[in-house]
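2024-03-11 09:14:02 DEBUG pipeline.ingest accepted 1 chain
2024-03-11 09:14:02 DEBUG pipeline.ingest length=184
2024-03-11 09:14:03 DEBUG pipeline.predict start
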Amino acid sequence: MIEPLLAAEPVSTPRLSLLPLRVEHAEEMAAVLGDPALHTFIGGTPYSPEALRTRYERLVAGSPDPDVRWCNWVLRPRAENCLVGTVQATITRGRAGPGRDTAGPGHTAEIAWMVGTPWQGRGFASEAARALVEWLGKRSVRTVIAHIHPEHLASASVATAAGLAPTAEEQDGERRWRLDLGGQ
């Protein structure tokens, strides 16, 4: 199993506080993530506050799989009293063997980010993604993965800023980006 204490904890950057997700964030985050344009590359539609509350209840309860941890944060700029986005990591226990992302005790994290439309273009996603990768690297995570639509240049820029590089692999129309943290 993954270390029992591996869970989202507060993370600070020069401009942001990454706060562990709470169900109570749902109403504000429904407004932050309510622009349908945010779904251009990922599909779907924005959640209503009620639907997002239900989703957050599931996320906060944790994965039913003992080999998987869900770590989710909301982003709060230090200079503003509001939430502006989210970052997340799905951490899977490392296993040796063919087709595995890790070959030892290190785990794999699949990460994602989303910043509300009014706050885009200010570097919040890049700053949060870098902080997330750094946080993961201080734990037993050795491989970081992101899946990005090939036309989503802003997300590719965030992945690059966080140290990930595109691979030749594609899944469901998205390019797989990867960073090997090794023994950091």
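2024-03-11 09:14:41 DEBUG pipeline.report Residues 11-20+68-180 form a domain with the Aminopeptidase fold (CATH 3.40.630.30).
2024-03-11 09:14:41 DEBUG pipeline.predict end
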